């Protein structure tokens, strides 16, 4: 059995990380003797020619894709191409959007054969074992499909995996991690599944359960140590709520420190799940930043969206982070139920006062969220079902008291101020004005990202023709000159980036077929 898993395109500007869910699924399938390949269309451009090549060389029996709301249309379009190349393959779609919009996806996308809802590992593996026996589909919990009469069937939900320690480490070897590292993106890991809260704008607890299930501490720290050795600048712990169990969180931190692992990491937390003791343990173990979803500077809105926190607790949590030396990152959602121009003003003021490091998103009523399913109750008008617009950066819904134009204007002003600040630093640098170390690091990181982005998307490393063995030239210098000729960047900038990528072991020079050429490691 061969399975091709698709990671659909997602904007670099959103700082994507290696596809954790697909790597977790792939690892479980490999353990069951399934041959798996991941096509990552974030760090590779999708094309029909590329799909043709994959189908002829790998010849999968199943092509499956994940997808969140903002890239679900791309995921479906890619599956359609694969289905057209070989109509006999089984196409499968999973992820949060497919889980909560399964009926519409099957109704409007006839090239999709099966939807895997919720946690995918056990369901997908059972589907593979009955792949050619459609009558047996009725026995598979957690899938939606069309029966022999072409009627859409939704089987009962599958129970969540009781002990997630049965799952192997994610199959990171199937993804080009070097490209993510070259872009300066972090690498992710997960220490638990589940979220005990039920905020109306989120599907987390529906997707992975309200009961939090934990990986064993030894396993967590073993994986942390493995990732720390990979050379990524940062590890992100992407649990819905890493701090949900204080004593267990402290246990993990103590074990990281006991082993002497020194690597920066971040995590997500709620303001009501931290105290000074816990934060000090996290700081001692290398935590540099905690991300808090504050959501609003208005208490009535927080209560309405079932956040179950207070503005005072938000202030206390941020103060405690500063006290121990952890940077608090705070995030907000504009356009929540009850939002007015006045509450937005209060949220902007609260954000500025609370933390220097903050950002805004705009409410996107994703399928499965309570705010979408009860939009009339919450006074929300949904403006569009064009999923491409659900990137949480533009208004796709409104309340009766604030327009989409006003929300977009505020977001544009905020983002514009960041861009203006970055441009001003660039101008100062051109004029020879001394920048602070922090400012210079920001400019260098942005320039580095731009250069590597072009190298990846234009396949400049893959397209380099190579140098014949024995030719008396400096291969690295020839490669730099080639990149300069293909990009808008200076020779000095390109040289710096090539040296950086070599040092990070993102690229290497290999000898093959009487040629020397660079490759992504």
In short:
By secondary structure, the protein is of the alpha/beta class. It contains 20 helices and 20 strands. Helix 10 packs parallel to helix 11, helix 11 (276-284) packs parallel to helix 13 (311-324) and helix 19 crosses helix 20 (491-503).
Q: Care to describe what's here?
A:
- This protein is of the alpha/beta class and 521 residues long.
- It folds into 3 domains: 2-154, 3-Layer(aba) Sandwich (Rossmann fold); 186-362, Aldolase class I (TIM Barrel, Alpha-Beta Barrel); 458-520, Arc Repressor Mutant, subunit A (Orthogonal Bundle).
- The chain has 20 helices and 20 strands.
- Strand 12, helix 11 (276-284) and strand 13 form a beta-alpha-beta unit.
- Helix 9 (217-228) packs across helix 10 (246-258) and helix 10 runs parallel beside helix 11.
- The longest helix has 27 residues, at 404-430.
- It is globular, with a radius of gyration of 24 Å.
- The relative contact order is 0.08.
- The model has no long low-confidence stretch (mean pLDDT 96).
């Amino acid at each position: 059995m061969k399975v091709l898993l698709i990671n659909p395109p997602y904007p670099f500007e959103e700082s994507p990380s290696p596809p954790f869910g697909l790597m977790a699924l792939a690892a479980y399938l490999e353990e069951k003797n399934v041959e798996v390949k991941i096509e990552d269309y974030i760090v590779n451009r999708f094309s029909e020619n590329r799909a043709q090549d994959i189908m002829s060389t790998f010849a999968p029996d199943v092509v499956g894709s994940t997808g969140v709301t903002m890239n679900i249309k791309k995921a479906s379009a890619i599956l359609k191409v694969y289905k057209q190349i070989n109509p006999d393959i089984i196409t499968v779609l999973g992820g949060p959007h497919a889980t909560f919009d399964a009926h519409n996806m099957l109704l409007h996308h006839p090239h999709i054969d099966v939807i895997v809802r919720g946690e995918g590992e056990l369901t997908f593996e059972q589907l593979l074992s009955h792949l050619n026996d459609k009558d047996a589909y009725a026995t598979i919990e957690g899938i939606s499909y069309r029966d022999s009469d072409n009627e859409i069937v939704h089987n009962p939900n599958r129970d969540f995996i009781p002990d997630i320690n049965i799952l192997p480490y994610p199959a990171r070897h199937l993804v080009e991690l070097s490209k993510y590292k070259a872009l300066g993106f972090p690498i992710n890991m997960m220490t638990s599944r589940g979220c005990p809260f039920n905020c109306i704008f989120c599907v987390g607890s529906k997707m992975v359960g309200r009961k939090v299930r934990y990986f064993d501490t030894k396993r967590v720290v073993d994986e942390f140590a493995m990732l720390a050795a990979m050379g990524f600048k940062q590890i992100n712990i992407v649990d819905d709520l890493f701090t949900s169990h204080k004593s267990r969180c402290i246990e993990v931190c103590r074990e990281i420190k006991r082993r002497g692992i020194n690597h920066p990491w971040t995590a997500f937390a709620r303001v009501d799940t931290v105290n000074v003791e816990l934060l000090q343990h996290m700081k001692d173990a290398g935590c540099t930043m905690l991300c808090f979803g504050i959501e609003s500077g208005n208490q009535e809105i927080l209560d309405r969206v079932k956040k179950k926190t207070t503005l005072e607790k938000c202030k206390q949590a941020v103060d405690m982070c500063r006290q121990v030396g952890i940077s608090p990152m705070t995030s907000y959602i504009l356009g929540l139920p009850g939002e007015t121009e006045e509450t937005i003003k209060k949220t902007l003021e609260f954000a500025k006062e609370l933390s220097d490091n903050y950002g805004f998103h705009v409410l996107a009523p994703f399928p499965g969220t309570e705010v979408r399913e009860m939009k009339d109750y919450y006074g929300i008008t949904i403006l569009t079902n064009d999923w491409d617009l659900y990137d949480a950066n533009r208004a796709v819904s409104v309340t009766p008291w604030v327009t989409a134009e006003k929300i977009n204007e505020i977001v544009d002003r905020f983002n514009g101020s960041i861009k203006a600040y970055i441009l001003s630093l660039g101008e100062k640098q051109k004029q020879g004005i001394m920048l602070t170390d922090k400012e210079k690091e920001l400019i260098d990181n942005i320039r580095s990202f731009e250069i590597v982005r072009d190298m990846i998307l234009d396949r400049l490393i893959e397209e380099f023709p190579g140098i014949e063995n024995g030719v008396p030239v400096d291969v690295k210098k020839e490669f730099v000159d080639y990149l300069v000729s293909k990009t808008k960047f200076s020779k000095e900038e390109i040289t710096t980036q090539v040296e950086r990528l070599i040092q990070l072991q993102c690229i290497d020079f290999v000898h093959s077929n009487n040629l020397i050429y660079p490759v992504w490691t």
